[in-house]
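fyi for ur records
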Amino acid sequence: MPRSVRAGLRTRLRAFAGTSVALALLVAVTAALAAAYPRAVDRYGDAGLRRAVEQALPDQTTVQTQVPLPWMDSVEEIEAALRAAPLTEARAEILATAEAPLVPDVAQSSYGVRTTVGLEASDSWLPQPAGQPAQMVLAAQQDLGSHARLSAGRLPRTRGAPVTAATEQVEAAVTVETARTLKIRVGSVIHVPGSGRAPLAVRITGIVVPRAPEGAYWSALPVLRTPALSRRPDLPPSEVHWLAGLLLAPDAGPALLGTPGRPERYWHVAPDVATLRGHDLDRLASAVAALESGPGAQRLRTVVDDGLEAQTNLDEVLADHARLRSGIDPLLLLAAVGTGSLAVIVLAMAGGVAADRRRAELALLRARGASLPGLAARLLAETAVVAVPAGALGLAAALLVLPGARTAPAVLTAVAVTLFACLVLPVRAVVAHRTVRTHDGREDLTAARPSRRCTVAELTVLVIAVGAVAALRRQGAGSTGLVAAAPLLTGVVAALLLARLHPLPLRALSRAAARLRGLVIPLSLAHVARAPGFAVLPLLALLSALTTAAFGGSVLAGVTAARDQAALHEVGADGRIETTTGELPRSLPDRVRRLPGVQDMTQAHVTYDAKPEQGSRLVPLAAVDPEGYARLSQRTGTGPFDAASLRQADDGTAGGADRPLPALASPRVADEYGTGPYAVLLPDGTSVTVRIAQVRERTPAVSGEEFLIVDRAGLPRGEARATTLLLTGDALDGRALRSAADGTAATVRLRAEERNRHVDSPLQAGAERLYGVAVAAGAGYAILALVLTVLRTVPERGALLARLRTMGMTRSQGRRLLILTALPQAFLAAAGGVLTGWVAIHLLAPGVDLTAIALASPSAPEGAVLRTDPLSLAVPALAVLLLAVGVPAGQAWWTSRRGSVRELRLGDT
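which gave:
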């Protein structure tokens, strides 16, 4: 770069130091937000996928390959195949066959030889819970020593000659849980049946403690770690027996050939959770399918054994996670498009303000012969000197704050922001000064008429916006990229409409103000009416920003409301104390009622084993006190009803055929059994006759679609005991409630705790945080757009106030003048933003499903819908209004302190 050009750049930066710093901050923040978005999405996607795989049990997420014994070969060949060396060679082939991004966790991938049928142990000293002998699974699993530590004894090993199918005794180890449950000690001998020979004796030489009991090595075959009660399919449910695992020496696999356990070789491929990436979900599913039944499985049948089979439920885990992500990604795209478009608008406004402030300078340069390319290159260099380092700084901040994600998308978005910021000023200047002019005509707001080209462009935007909104309502948020811009387009259309309507009230007010005797109001209206058309264009940014902020806030409000409603349906009240065995102590209600935070309490007897005499299914039945239960239903909004219609006549008798109990029922129960009267059999053998008096979709005491609610006074005395306490209160203390219920076998559930459990995946929490950032960024860009608009007119307002002060206007009149000058457009933007946000939310609500973000289960019956959030509508709008009025008021105060002479140049008076 020539020295003269460098000197000119330095001079320009010194002359406009404040503007350069502001531009650098704007570019840095915008580049940081743009770069942070894809990295945040990556991080949340990675964490969500890992959580999904970790929450699934290892026996579901490991790819389990096994090979049955080739019975047609000789016994010696079969024994050779079951030894450690061939198993290890086959394991290397299987691990190498797994394709990226499915990376095996070598340490947790187990392999060996095991029996597939439980072998009955003939030793009478083993526990027999129902008189059935314990059964054993024998496994010669490799690498036992590196995955367990000894608690007693030593690890099993083979001595002398190699183990064969005729070996009569082998050594084994058991875990501490197996030893404790089955009363096994070091030195115990367990006998399992032999196949055509004497029983195989298994001597226990060690008791081991798993180093990572929840890892795939121990949990892919959980019976090796923890014994379980099991039963044969042909026996009654009560005929159970213990099923436990015995861990043989690594080279003792051939001994299993001498048992009827149908031994097989197995290799469990555990995925390395740390290497899972959310953006690789499709490729990961393909890699799992290839190893399970695709080209990978075919290759293994060729190199390992043609009888090899593989199966896993990892593909189902990935499919469930993909469904969750498919419900969240469109909502994230809505936030990204809205906030990203706002950033583009504000950057364009910043360039426009800079170009407008330098209009006289650039016009002079063009009049003196400056070419458009030369002018554009000069402006590009001036902007790039500021914007490029700022963009690099924003990118570096995003990379440092959000590590562990892909870098390329972040770099691309940051570069795009920086490039756009560099090009805005040169492009605006070239468009404005393509023709050499010495004077621009006035473009009064009230007198200007839109051109045909402008009208066609506005109608095009209107048609596109209507199509996007209609598609969003009909197809949902995940259909196309245009649909994601529906909230933003709604704000753009509203801004264009308000810009068209803005001159009309100004003309009417100007005519009315002409009859006033005062000076300030007519002058303010005249000044607003003479403002150029560019002063109205920031409405596009303001209304779009307010609409986007309102939409994001409404998403968060809908998520919160859905979780709160789901928790209410699960608990029935703010708190619930319930026992399913027996009844609650009679003193418990009084203790609970006196606890801090408890405002009201309703007792109920809930049984899930009531059976209508004319039906075959059990129906939950709750006996309640009608008045208290009606208050609870009214307060929670869950099936409110009239207490009088449920009250039993006070005659001291239970409901019988001649005096049936009035009941509140669900629609399904009413449709299936009719309104009665009919008898309902109770668990203690008694019965009560009910007549359905009211039907409600839901009720606090029972969750689900089937229930009967009756008056406690109408039940037999034994069935009227309290089993459930339903509590209301805004600040229930869970610790105090659990302390009061301690020792009663009752469970305590709080609505607030259930609400938190619906955040089941980092994807959900991440989407919420991103929407929170989108709301804050939308409000921030709205304020920034207003600041840019106000800053653009600061010199003009200062000169106006100075002229009027020389003509005798007082300081207070000057302040009122500037405030009234700024008020129409600020009020229009704030009111229009609130109205546009409200309309946009109601227009788009049918096409936006928040269930994936809000609830732990995407198929939850409650669902989650978009709902209006008053704070998100009002707070940004009020901030815009206050800022638009406050800045001119502050400028008037400051100008009055400095005096008028400094604001006037030669020729201004």
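The CA atoms of residues 23 and 203 lie 79 Å apart. thats all i got for now
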